[in-house]
Amino acid sequence: MAWRNVVRQRRRSAVALLAIGFGVVAMMLATGYIEWIFWANREGLAVNQLGHIQITRPGYHEKGQADPAAFLIPDDASVPAVLAGTPGVRSVAQRIVFNGLISHEDSTLSFIGEGVDPAKDPYARNLSIVAGEPLSAQDPKGMLLGFGLAANLGVKTGDTVVLLANTATGGINAVEGHVRGLAATNLKAYDDVMLRVPLATARELLRLRGAHLWVVSLHRTELTDSVTARLRAEPALRPYAVVPWSELADFYNKTVALFSRQMGVVRLIIAVIIVLSISNTMMMSVMERTREIGTAMALGLRRQHILRLFLIEGTLLGALGGLIGISVGFLLASAISAIGIPMPPAPGMSRGFVASILITPAIARDALLLAISTTLIASIYPAWRASRLDIVDALRHNR
């Protein structure tokens, strides 16, 4: 009966479905865009900068900047073997973090450097090579400079530069090399100080053995929690700290928290719009069907049956409108993503980007639940009003 009532009131049902579908599409597109931002930042941080998991000495991330030599991890072939043999791990790379001065002719600037394994470290995935080539293990003296650092220093690919840094024992050492390539990230401030060198050059400059951390890359970011738990249970890794990227990406976590609160407000606004629209539609339906309701109750239909009938009608409208909205939202998201959303550089960023809309099963599920729950809530009061009608007054309605 509820389904037949929905079908026979075509105009009113069409208006209700349009309101529900519009709300669902709006929520999917807005949430899908935010989800893409989360994904882009997550993959940019986890895969490209931090690695999925970092293995360090305990306390390195809190005190390592002040005294990095105290947190060195010695070369131990057994530990990388354990890491590489863990299911889900794609690669394991050592990394050395340091800073110092870089000179070319009469110019000298400070830099923030990293010694990386060019073959295994995921460092290159967050870089855009502007000129020259990326690092290579076959060219240990070849260095990769940030585009801003190179411009401020006045160097180009092939030029000779000298690095000056404090050694692990407290002395000062210098290494000569050449600019192999210029790279750019999304952050202009980082481009102005960024320097990457092969591990061999970093060790020669700092006169140390080992590394400050091991960077573990996984096949998929979703494996981070399970692999982290497995590594923390490994006896060989108990002297070390196993830190997932999510504990290091403070800016990402704050961004997720902020945008999630904003999306909560958007969902609330959409829910209120749907509730008001469906509530108004259902109240009009009750008014127009007053005599029909009175006749049904006169024939023996109980009040709880009337209540249930209108609640089911609202739920059917929500389910149908939600399915229509999900279908239209998915098609629109695919079309918009195929075209791309050009975005200007954000504050502090050097480059713009092309955004997309990422629709996940969770977004589609939440959209359908939103449509059904809001229409059910919107139907409660009209259904209660319909069930409380007096039979005699209902039969006399509009006479």
Domain count: the total is 2
Could you spell the SSE succession in H and E letters? HHEHHEEEEHEEHEHEHEHHHEEHH
DSSP strand content: 15-25%
Structural class: alpha+beta
How is the main sheet built?
6 strands, mixed, barrel
The number of E-state strands comes to 12
Assign a percent range to the helix content.
40-55%
> In angstroms, what is the radius of gyration?
31 Å
Low-confidence stretches: none
Strand order across the largest sheet:
2-3-8-5-7-6
Distance between the termini: 26 Å
Outline, from the CA principal axes?
elongated
Number of helices: 13
Average of the residue pLDDT scores: 84
What's this entry about, in short?
By secondary structure, the chain is of the alpha+beta class. It has helices spanning 2-8, 10-50, 60-63, 78-84, 147-153, 188-191, 199-206, 224-232, 250-288, 290-298, 303-339, 361-387, 391-396; strands spanning 53-56, 89-104, 107-116, 128-132, 142-146, 160-166, 172-184, 194-198, 213-218, 241-244, 341-343, 353-355. It folds into two domains: 2-44 and 252-396, no CATH class; 58-239, no CATH class.
Notes on the structure:
- The protein is α+β, with helices and mostly antiparallel strands and 399 residues long.
- The chain folds into two domains: 2-44 and 252-396, no CATH class; 58-239, no CATH class.
- The chain contains 13 helices and twelve strands.
- The chain has a six-stranded mixed barrel with strand order 2-3-8-5-7-6. It has a two-stranded antiparallel sheet with strand order 11-12.
- Strand 2 and strand 3 form a beta hairpin.
- The chain starts with a helix and ends with a helix.
- The model has no long low-confidence stretch (mean pLDDT 84).
